[in-house]
């Protein structure tokens, strides 16, 4: 019998705005739920909306707040409702680490990015989320990037994001073998509204890819 550990690909669903969608995702066994705290997003929630959404999440499922170059105060008022912070802007490592909360740095895969340098720079991050680059859009583009650009070894766990869907996630897991996958648009019925069937299919495809 092989001594190889069976690594399960973690799943994060992002961009929740409705309690019913949160409950469905939790029932499907998702590992983390993302809430967009960037007011310019059509998926954003206010702190007042975040509170009941977050309090409906049970133990062992992480509540992740997404920020884009926020003020200190904007992050601090969300802290009671979050387990993890995810930064999508030009935040410095010092800023990201200033809240005493585990954090993820999102990196957009522009042509010139040097992932090894970024992994060193954001050495205190719990993981790096790699996403597609579209000028002027900090995240949630629904676009995939060329996964072959991800180095086989990186100093940080990789969360693969950008244009994942129930149709392509198994291929992504096989090719990249990320620590986790992250999806927003690929499991939606409309912007901010999740589709129960697509969420279930996505979870199933990740589980199937893991056992193959
Ligand atoms: O979703 C947004 O509107 C958003 C705005 C600003 C920063 C991040 C944002 N979303 C991040 C995500 O939903 C995901 O982490 C990731 O970008 C994947 O999105 P998608 O390509 O739609 O699956």
Automatic annotation (TrEMBL):
Its EC number is 5.3.1.24. CDD domains: PRAI. It is an enzyme of class 5 (isomerase). Keywords: Amino-acid biosynthesis, Aromatic amino acid biosynthesis, Isomerase, Tryptophan biosynthesis. Transmembrane segments: none annotated. InterPro entries: Aldolase_TIM, PRAI_dom, RibuloseP-bd_barrel, TrpF_fam. Pathway: Amino-acid biosynthesis; L-tryptophan biosynthesis; L-tryptophan from chorismate: step 3/5. It catalyses: N-(5-phospho-beta-D-ribosyl)anthranilate = 1-(2-carboxyphenylamino)-1-deoxy-D-ribulose 5-phosphate. One of its GO terms (molecular function) is phosphoribosylanthranilate isomerase activity. It comes from the Bacteria. GO terms for biological process: L-tryptophan biosynthetic process. Belongs to the TrpF family. HAMAP family: PRAI. This is N-(5'-phosphoribosyl)anthranilate isomerase. It comes from Vreelandella arcis. The lineage of its organism: Bacteria, Pseudomonadati, Pseudomonadota, Gammaproteobacteria, Oceanospirillales.
């Amino acid at each position: 019998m092989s001594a190889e550990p069976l690594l399960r690909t973690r799943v994060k669903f992002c961009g929740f705005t409705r309690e019913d969608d949160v409950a469905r995702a939790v029932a499907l066994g998702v590992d983390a739920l993302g809430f967009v705290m960037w007011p310019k997003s059509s998926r954003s929630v206010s702190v007042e909306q975040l509170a009941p959404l977050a309090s409906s999440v049970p133990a062992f499922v992480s509540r992740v707040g997404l920020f884009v170059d926020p003020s200190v105060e904007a992050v601090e008022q969300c802290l009671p409702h979050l387990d993890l912070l995810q930064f999508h802007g030009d935040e410095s490592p010092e800023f990201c680490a200033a809240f005493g909360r585990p954090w993820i740095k999102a990196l957009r895969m522009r042509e010139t990015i040097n992932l090894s340098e970024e992994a060193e720079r954001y050495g205190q991050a719990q993981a790096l989320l790699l996403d597609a680059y579209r000028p002027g859009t900090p995240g949630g583009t629904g676009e995939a990037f060329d996964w072959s650009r991800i180095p086989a070894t990186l100093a940080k766990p990789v969360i693969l994001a950008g244009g994942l869907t129930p149709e392509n996630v198994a291929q992504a897991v096989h090719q990249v073998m990320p620590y986790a996958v992250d999806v927003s648009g690929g499991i939606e019925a409309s912007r901010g509204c999740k589709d129960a069937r697509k969420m279930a299919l996505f979870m199933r495809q990740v589980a199937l890819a893991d056992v193959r």
